[in-house]
Amino acid sequence: MSLEGRTALVTGAGSGIGRACARRLAAEGAHVVVADVNAEAAGKVAAEIGGTPVTVDLSDPEFLVAWRGQLPPSPDTRLRADIVVNNAGFQHVAPIEEFPPEIFSAIMRVMVEAPFLLARAVLPGMYERGWGRIVNISSVHGLRASPYKAAYVTAKHALEGLSKVIALEGAAHGVTSNCVNPAYVRTPLVENQIADQARTHGIGPDEVVEQIMLAPAAIKRLIEPDEVAEMVAYLCGPAGSFVTGVSIPIDGGWSAR
Ligand SMILES: NC(=O)c1ccc[n+]([C@@H]2O[C@H](COP(=O)([O-])OP(=O)(O)OC[C@H]3O[C@@H](n4cnc5c(N)ncnc54)[C@H](O)[C@@H]3O)[C@@H](O)[C@H]2O)c1
């Protein structure tokens, strides 16, 4: 129970990797604020782990106002968090010349601006208490590109930069900031991608996984959300206290090529 007494905000915690992170951090004793645009999903996960659900759309620049209104009253009006896991995200696949600009903007707001706004809100408190952990769920696409994922690749690369700047500014105040970079994780986001690609290429879902998704990886399987959550718990726990400003691939050897 290395995180007893800590409060962790996990965005997109209603599903997939975020849900696994929320459960894992709660198992370490943290009180978890389960934030998601999907109220039902946030409520379910929060009930499961004794956390606080927050319904929030991170594509709305005013999301912090909605967020504050749902948290239990605190003597401190600022957003209190010892740990932030920036996980919420989604993607859209299209060639650049057909990529809708409004979807590009929405992806940038959720995956780059929201982590920036959250950092602005929580860092002063972390600095005062001399302890904080920011973990950004980036991707292999934060380190390398794929065609047709302009917004996703751009957003993840930007998140890598933000994470390093926070690491440099936070170091003197006991705050670490890191990225975790998974390849394909078995979550609803990936299940949808498998179905889309099966339709596009006229092949079955198993062929999509084997022939397309796992092609660059050395270990030929999808990752489980708990395997990502384990790395997040490591970065937030005592063993991770000297690790900052890095990006850790969990990609079955993809980035070794
Ligand atoms: N699944 C993968 O293979 C994979 C690989 C690398 C990185 N990632 C990253 O991991 C993160 C989580 O992905 P996942 O696969 O668990 O996806 P998921 O679709 O299972 O879960 C994403 C969650 O984010 C929430 N969300 C989406 N838009 C939101 C918004 N505007 N405001 C608040 N919440 C919002 C959704 O409601 C959902 O609960 C994403 O940032 C994704 O880019 C996923």
How would the blueprint of this fold be written?
Blueprint: E1 7-11, H1 16-27, E2 31-36, H2 39-49, E3 52-55, H3 63-70, E4 83-86, H4 101-129, E5 132-137, H5 150-170, E6 175-182, H6 188-201, H7 205-213, H8 225-236, E7 247-250
Helix pairs in contact: 1-8, 4-5, 6-7
The chain binds nicotinamide-adenine-dinucleotide.
The site of nicotinamide-adenine-dinucleotide has 29 residues, from helix 1 and helix 6.
Tell me about this structure.
The chain has 257 residues and is of the alpha/beta class. It folds into 2 domains: 7-182 and 224-242, Rossmann fold, CATH 3.40.50.720; 185-222, no CATH class. It is 45% helix and 14% strand. It is built from 8 helices and 7 strands. Strands 3-2-1-4-5-6-7 form a 7-stranded parallel sheet, with helices on both faces. The longest helix is centred in the middle third of the chain and has 29 residues, at 101-129. The protein is globular, with a radius of gyration of 18 Å. The structure holds nicotinamide-adenine-dinucleotide. Residues 11-12, 14-18, 36-38, 41, 56-59, 87-90, 110, 137, 139, 182, 184-185, 187-190 line the site of nicotinamide-adenine-dinucleotide. The site of nicotinamide-adenine-dinucleotide (NAD) has 29 residues, from helix 1 and helix 6. Belongs to the short-chain dehydrogenases/reductases (SDR) family. Its EC number is 1.1.1.30.
Q: Characterize the main sheet.
A: 7 strands, parallel
Which CATH class of the largest domain is shown? Alpha Beta
CATH topology of the largest domain: Rossmann fold
Portion in beta strands: 5-15%
Topology as a string of helices (H) and strands (E): EHEHEHEHEHEHHHE
User: What average pLDDT do the residues reach?
Assistant: 95
- Major sheet strand order: 3-2-1-4-5-6-7
Ligand inventory reads:
nicotinamide-adenine-dinucleotide
CATH architecture of the largest domain: 3-Layer(aba) Sandwich
The end-to-end span amounts to: 37 Å
Query: What are the low-pLDDT stretches, counting only 5+ consecutive residues below 50?
Result: none
Radius of gyration in whole Å, from Cα? 18 Å
DSSP helix fraction: 40-55%
